[in-house]
Amino acid sequence: MFEKFLEFGPDPNCPNGSLIINPPLHLALQFSHRKAADSLLRNGADPNLVFKGRTPLHVACYKRRDDLAELLLNFAKEVDQVIQIDALDKKGRTPLHWALLNGKKQTTEALLRRDANPNLADAEGLTPLHIICRKGKGHDLLEMFFKINVELDKPVQIEVEDKKGLTPLHYALLNYGCKKQIVQLLLRNAAKNRRLNLTFDQSGSTPLHIICLETNDDDNADLAKIFFEINDEFNQPWQVNAVDKKGRTALLCALSNDCSVQMAEVLLRNGVDPNLADAAGRTPLHQICRIYNQDLVEQFFEICDEIQLTVDINARDDKGNTPLHLLMQTSISSQKKQSNCC
């Protein structure tokens, strides 16, 4: 019936239609009517027609079906027609952005192989790589993304920042799903291209700060190890003593989060200064004594002795307190709480 109607010759682009009503091709794709979309294309529907900022390819990539985008791409190739693969919608997003937001691996590959730009940023400054890392739903998509762009000789901008000052690596670290594999892929691809750098976000935090501020300490100690292993493998310099806007090194961030001995050891053995103080004048030893972690105090000194690091035990914070002062204050406070509970 639909094909018969088109045989009467109506313009499938409805040039005189209302600006409120979707063009037929947009509607067919929106409701996943593949056969109708194919008929419209073969009867003159424009695969690049823009309606409310969206092309048919945008609409196809909103949907979770891979065959709709492939229909448009294959038709354009069949009739040798240029399709606007990097068209921007009102949010500044390309079809590739939407394919990734919907987790469509097959469509993503098809778009990249049809010359989609892997580095275009949307209105929020998010590139396709930001989106992959922000969603954090598996390293296989990221692996494919890098592989195809290497094949096509298209360098992926790994260190680019969005409007919040966050890189793809920041987003990968802020996510929990498949984090370790994604971080490894990002770091290795950055290191291979000699573009590895500890970029700061708006709070002054490097990716290493973010690792140390998270609560899943065993996993984060492993992530910190990965950072330093890749650093050694590719001979890349790390700003291990970089400070955030509170003057904290990664070690101070880890200690403020009541980190494990394992995390502290990873940082100390990889060059983090055990004496650098934060904006309040507190050193790592101040922080350890403030949280009253006896095991960590003992291990801290043992590790520093083993790797021949001198710890300033008499350093004073802005209030004139040494680590011993804080240890005594915390001990007295703890005893008072225990007495009140009895």
CATH architecture type of the domain at 203-333:
Alpha Horseshoe
Succession of helices and strands: HHHHHHHHHHHHHHHHHH
Query: Proportion of β residues?
Result: under 5%
CATH topology term of the domain at 203-333: Serine Threonine Protein Phosphatase 5, Tetratricopeptide repeat
Rounded to the nearest angstrom, the radius of gyration is 28 Å
End-to-end Cα distance: 85 Å
Q: Catalogue the unreliable spans.
A: none
Q: Which overall shape is indicated by the principal axes computed on the Cα atoms?
A: elongated
Instruction: Report the CATH superfamily of the domain at 203-333.
Output: Ankyrin repeat-containing domain
